[in-house]
Amino acid sequence: MSEISQIKSETLKIAQKYLPERRFLLAILQDIQRHYNYLPAEAMKTVAQYLNVPLVKVCGMATFYKAFSLTPKGKYIIKVCDGTACHIKGSLNLLSEIETILGIEPGETTADGLFSLETVACIGACGLAPVAVINDEYHGNLTPASLRQILQQYQGGIEDAK
Amino acid sequence: MQNKKTIFVCCGTGCQASGSMKIYQTMQKIISKLDLDVEVVADIKKTGCHGLCQKGPLVHITPQEITYIHVKTTDVQEIIERSIIKDEVIDRLLYFDKQQNAKIQSKNDWSFEKKQFRIALRHCGCIANDSIDDYIAKGGYQALEKVLKTMTPQEVIDEIRKSSLRGRGGGGFLTGLKWSFAAKAQGDIKYVICNGDEGDPGAFMDRSIMEGDPHTVLEGMAICGYAIGANRAFLYIRDEYGLAVENMKKAIADAHARGVMGQNIFGSGFAFDAEVVRGGGAFVCGEETSLIHSIEGSTGEPTSKPPFPANQGLWGKPTIINNVETWANVPVIISKGADWFASIGSEKSKGTKVFALVGKINNTGLVEVPMGIKLREIIFDIGGGIEKKRKFKAVQTGGPSGGCIPESKLDLPIDYDSLIAEGSMMGSGGMIVIDDRTCMVEFARYYLKFLSEESCGKCVPCREGIKSMLKILNDICEGKGQEGDIELLEEIGSMVKANSLCGLGKTAPNPVLSNIKNFRDEFEAHIKDKRCPAGVCKNLTKLYIDQEACIGCGLCAKSCPTAAISGEKKQPHVLDEAKCINCNSCRERCAVDAIRVH
């Protein structure tokens, strides 16, 4: 099966968990994003057909909501919390440290596909500010130096650096 | 059966981030090996936030009422042996209360708890949060039963109106009045919506309620459904709030299984059903018309009001939208009566408000206080004062829609109207404490940057106005500020406020305007003296080490990422300005405050 037809059939399988009603467009796209870590163009076309919604509307949703990405993300997604508490406790210093080490800004992915960098507005762990989450693993009370060590562990290929 | 004890491991997001899941797993493993008659409620999915997130993971044991803080997996064996099998208290794991200057056994006696009054958070931390049995054991769904069996819809609305409950999402509109509009609106199909799209950075009240006590939200919504004649409900919850989505879905399924949701509830003939919609991650979707469009499967762009959702909302039908915390108050008002509720709080703001108390404060966490309490009491009595004994500068409320309250207003009673009079607002309940090391210009820039990304772009004043203001603020922070910038910010700000379509734009300039009003000297220092007094804006900061104050401990040199600090042990150190990148790492580490800003 070619890659395109594979995406088509996988997407259809995801979409068919929902009735073909417009109100489920957001939920279907969220499930696709979760499955692929981004929204492939072919998947968006398939969803548009399934719901009988113009493709432009699907693209509109994909670019409007923060949850969606049109390009594949890295193996490790670093989410630096830039909620207010983290911000005043130095989250910008963490971001500039990551830029120094990995050469990426928020929204970008390293060339080797290992890391993506994002900022999030409050993950509710304000007691540990500043916080970063790397693939669901929380790292609290960070300093640029401690973050550097943590990133080195991930770079070293340790799956579950703790 | 003599030794039946319950261990509550806090598994709110804050404690989970500190590793409470591992505590729970270790606890289960050890207990399963012992032949004990101990009921463990300490399931990772089971107990919601206890409040004091900073001291997490928190473990509470009943009936002895022992609360342990900062529990590590290595402590678990000892806790089981000494506090579960025996009745001993492990002194080392108790909370040291600075205000009382003593170690305190139970969280109920912490100074942090003393001035709190819990209505919306009444069950958080006290019940297993995925158990409908626990909720019912605490009197849950009795309010719904009372309403269905003994009250008419009009009586329900009258009761809520009499309580003077106001919307906890920020606007503060009278809940009962809103319900009466929807009740009067024509149409056989009506909807109830829970706004759980808590997008305000620095706020996590709604998340904690949905995680810790999902049934109270459902019960409140069902009561409203009966009052206005709606049979269907939607809960719009941020997708990032995985645990809240999960717990809420389970609560809906459990409620169906128990017959407190579905057809013919309590034999009354009333039917009610709810479903969860996961939000797409757009701040503007907290605005009610945007949220409605998002549920309909469109982009979350606002539309102008009127028509208000109470008349024409979801799919054009009369719709009531309330925030999570508002819903959590409804069953209590019905159970205890409007008069009881209205006896709490200030003249125009009744009841309590939950705040996420965060920032440069000793006790970070979730607090619920009666309306009308003074800011000073929240920050110094409950919050335990400013971190590292630094100087209090301001407190920010209302998130990106609010503003800062300066030190001179510390005795302000907190309610909807007093905050608006100060140029801030209640908002959903973020309360960010700021010390003298926070730059008020950069802080305003932070909110504007957030809003510029979150503005949906539909109306020009918001989209372009915020962008222009952000550019000016960026320039000021980078040292490129010019004479007249402050006045220009004020002018654009008032234009954006007056002409934007929805609440996002109408309030967006508030953080800037309020900071200019209260901290104009800081803006002027940036523009005229090219200096950032707080030492935050990198281009405008030069650090040095005070040779008198430095004790030569070397902590600063160790923390410096560019090796800009040197010196002999026990001798005053020096900082090489050419190498310094103004990251402030050394300043944070220094215990004697010897790193200063020029």
Would you list the SSEs of chain A in sequence order as H and E?
HHHHEHHEEEH
Oligomer: heterodimer
The gyration radius over C-alpha positions of chain B equals 26 Å
CATH fold category name of the largest domain in chain B: Rossmann fold
CATH architecture of the largest domain in chain A, by name, is 3-Layer(aba) Sandwich
Overall morphology of chain B: globular
User: How much helicity do the residues of chain B have?
Assistant: 25-40%
Going by helix content, strand content and strand pairing, the class of chain B is: alpha/beta
CATH class of the largest domain in chain A: Alpha Beta
Compute the number of helices of chain A: 7
Commentary on this structure:
The complex is a heterodimer of chains A (162) and B (598). Chain A is α+β, with helices and mostly antiparallel strands. Helix content of chain A is 46%, strand content 11%. Chain A is built from seven helices and four strands. Chain B has 598 residues and is α/β, with parallel strands linked by helices. In chain B, the strands form six sheets. Chain B has a five-stranded mixed β-sheet with strand order 11-10-14-12-13. The radius of gyration of chain B is 26 Å and the shape is globular. Mean pLDDT of chain B is 92; it is low at 40-45. Chains A and B meet through helix 2, helix 4, helix 5, helix 6 and helix 7 of A and helix 1, strand 10, strand 14 and helix 17 of B.
